[in-house]
Amino acid sequence: MGGIELKALPVSFATHVVGAIAAVMVLVWSIHFRGGLVWESENKNLIFNLHPVLLLIGLIIIGGEAIISYKSLPLKKKEKKLIHLVLHGIALILAIFGVYMAFKFHNESNIANLYSLHSWIGIGVVVLYAIQWTYGFVVFFYPGGTPLIRKESLPWHILFGLFLYILAVGTATLGFLEKLTFLENSGIAKYGSEAFLVNFTAIATILFGTLVVLTALSQGPGEDEYSYTAI
Ligand code: HEM
């Protein structure tokens, strides 16, 4: 992809920093304010906590790092392709676990599944992400499509990938809104420190997503020396 007249490396650095901040924020929220990360508990609310952590750190942050790996790493294209597909694979697996935790929490608390807009779009995002990953693997990695199929697929892969990523960031934002609304309705202070932390985590998520897209559209490092393999 040609890209806008902006060097990707400094933008990618800002992206890593904001990603690290967002990861710390969601961990502080779920561990310090919400009681910690557990798989099994009598207190079913704790089971939910892994959901935002796995989705934010997995799908959004590791998935975002996967997207920008072509622009943020001074490596050969073949190596970057492997890093891209492995990071997206990790992001997808963590996302599936994260969604499973929300279902587990609902089922063990006798709460209905899939009743909200957040959950509907969320399921759509994870299913489309799995399809996008599988198509990318088969066409660009193994067994690999013909040169014509690769060439014609690449712009769609990029467009659809960015679209899906932006949708994932929107879904996470909806999730923060929904959970904070539940918490406020059950008594936490509307202007308390937890409410501020959740809203600022959502803002950090949006900022990270913006920087990921900006990095993806910028000029990668050493494209001339390193882009010698056909993608
Ligand atoms: C892109 C990331 C995310 C995806 C794909 C996603 C997906 C989902 C899905 C599919 C469900 C339905 C589970 C069920 O019906 O049993 C769900 C539930 C839920 N999620 Fe997320 N989620 C994401 C991020 C977040 C984040 C960051 C939060 C913040 C706390 C959050 C909060 C919630 C809440 C409160 C529920 C339970 C209520 C409901 O079903 O809407 N989600 N999520």
TrEMBL record:
Keywords: Electron transport, Heme, Iron, Membrane, Metal-binding, Transmembrane, Transmembrane helix, Transport. Its cofactor is heme b. The keyword Heme applies. Its EC number is 7.2.1.3. It is found in: Membrane. GO terms for cellular component: membrane. It is a multi-pass membrane protein. It comes from the Eukaryota. The keyword Lyase does not apply. The chain crosses the membrane at residues 12-32, 52-70, 82-103, 115-142, 154-176, 196-217. This is ascorbate ferrireductase (transmembrane). The lineage of its organism: Eukaryota, Viridiplantae, Streptophyta, Embryophyta, Tracheophyta.
